[in-house]
Structure formats: structure tokens, C-alpha cells
Amino acid sequence: MSEFKTALVIDGKKTAETIKNEIKAQVAKLIDDHDKAPHLAAIIVGEDPASQTYVAAKEKAAQSVGIVSSVYRYPESLTEDELLKAVDFLNSDDEVDGFIVQLPLPKHIDVDKVIARVSPDKDVDGFHPMNVGKMVLGQAGFVSATPAGIVELLKRYKIETEGKHVVVLGRSNIVGSPVSILMSKKANPGNATVTLCHSKTNHLEDIMKSADILICALGQPEFVKAHMVKQGAVVIDVGIHRVEAKNEKGFKLVGDVAYNEVAVKAGYITPVPGGVGPMTIAMLLQNTLKAHLAKLNAE
Questions:
Q1: Beta-carbon count within 10 A of 118 CB
Q2: Whether residues 104 and 164 fall in one domain
Q3: Domain with 38 in it: what CATH number?
Q4: Phi and psi (nearest 5°) for 99?
Q5: Which residues are catalytic?
Q6: Tens digit of each residue's pLDDT (9 = 90 or more) over 215-234
Q7: Strands (DSSP E) along the chain, which ranges?
Q8: Does a structural domain hold residue 51?
């Protein structure tokens, strides 16, 4: 029988609420000081259900902290030129502090071209090449919300990262690559030795079992099993998938980690839902407030 107990749950939902309350207090003070509230906008093209859900959650969260929220909805048939004009409009709108272009976009639109068109000063998603470059160099800019949320969870739960072996599963530009860079930075959290794994990685399970902190952003439901995880490791699950289940809804949400079996072995673990997901929206709001304050300081 193991001497270790079930993992401590890293409650992203609770932490996100704390952050939103902090933002709400700052926004209220701004308004009391006769300033306008920050304004976050979103462009959404098409009817992707996951995108619709995310944008609706963003709207609700923004309004709950006093941030003005606008959503520009366009049909799937929108041309690339029309979308670029919409981006230009928001770039030039002084009322808007920051905005996102919700991904994925229809296949006929060049995602990289659209992201590069967003003003770096309003790029609260942190996807613009200039903001990515600033993150790599350790300069002030916008860090994309999910990696920033992971770092914030580690910080607020006082999880030691210095000198630890962090293994990141997945090398996407949205999560895997940026979080691997943040974990290796000379910072706290940071100062870790990072291994970035992907579909071409050899001896994957051996590498995973050596991780003190395992960040899972692979995009495969319940890929990570207990035998792949070191006893007492910190497990951060970024994945979210809808799988069939024998319940009223006919489905359940799971992550990249087989939660029930890994939770018995891990030291800390994020649940799905209620882990990294709520932090993504909280950090997006944080970036919006940051953009607003930067604009005030520049005036």
C-alpha cells in the first residue's frame, strides 16, 4: 500500500475567481477616478460550437468584473479581406483596449496573416509575433492566456519549479511551446529544466516518468495513465474533450489525463473541467486591464 495520499487538487475555478475579484476592484477604482472601464472585443467567424461557448463565457466574465465586452459575429462565408478590414477597424477604435480573433478560422482564411494584422498593443491573446518575441526575450508584453494561467496557478499554489524537471506534452504555438519557454525563464515560477515532447519523441513514457512537473497539452483524451507519472509529480492538464458517457447529457468532459487513476499517484493535479480552463479567461481579462493601463500611461 502506498504511503502517498490522493493528490491535492489545484482548483483553477477558485483561483480564477480570486483573480477576477482583484481585477474587479481595480476596475472599480479606475471608474471611481473618472476613467472609463476597460473594453474587450472579440471577432468570431462561423458557428463553431466550442468557439461560441468560449466567447459567451468571456463575455459573461468580462461583464462580471466591470469590463465592457463587445462581440463582432460574422458568417462562415466572410472573406479574408473582409476580416482584415474588421481587424483594422478594431485596431483604430480608441474605445477598444484589446481584442481577440477567435480561433479556429474558416479554412479559406490565412490565420497567420490575420494574427499579424492585430495591433501588438491590443493583442490580449498574446499571439502576435512581436508579443511572442517579447516573451522569448523576457520583455514586457502580452503572454498568451493559457500559458500565463498555468504559470499563475503554479505561483499561487507555491509549487516550487526551480531546478525541477518540467516535461511538456505538445508543442503548439498556443500552449506547449510558450509554456516550455516560460518554465525555463530566469523567474519564479521558472528556472526549471524543460523537456518538450511531441509526436516524434522517442522513449516518451520514460521521459514522462522523470517529470517533477508534467504539463499535458497533447490533445488526446485520457492519454496520460498512472504508470506514466512519477509518484508525487505535479500534473497540469490542459486538454478538454467531450466523450460519450451513460448519463443524462450523453457525454462527459475529460482532459488529456486519466484523472481518477493519476490523482492517486500525483502530488498535485488540475481537474477537467475546473482547472486550467477558467484561468485562461481570467488571464485574458488581466491582459485587457494591462492594455487599458498601458494606454492610460501613454496619454
A1: 24
A2: no
A3: 3.40.50.10860
A4: -150, 160
A5: 58, 102, 125
A6: 999 999 999 999 999 999 99
A7: 8-9, 39-45, 68-74, 98-101, 165-169, 193-197, 213-216, 234-237, 241-244, 251-254, 268-269
A8: yes
